[in-house]
Amino acid sequence: MIHAFTRYFQTKFPHHIRHIHYTVMFIALAQLLLSNGMHINKQGVIRDTAVAQFSTWAHIGFGCVFLLLIIAFTLVELRTHGFRYFYPYLWGDWRQIQSDIAQLRQRKLPDAKPQGLAACVQGLGLGAGLLVAASGAIWLGLWLTDSALAHEAKDLHKMLTGLIEAYIVGHGGLGLLHIYLSSKKHGQLDEK
Ligand code: HEM
Ligand code: HEM
Question: Which of 15, 44, 102, 189 has a C-alpha 20 to 30 A away from that of 137?
Answer without folding.
Answer: 15
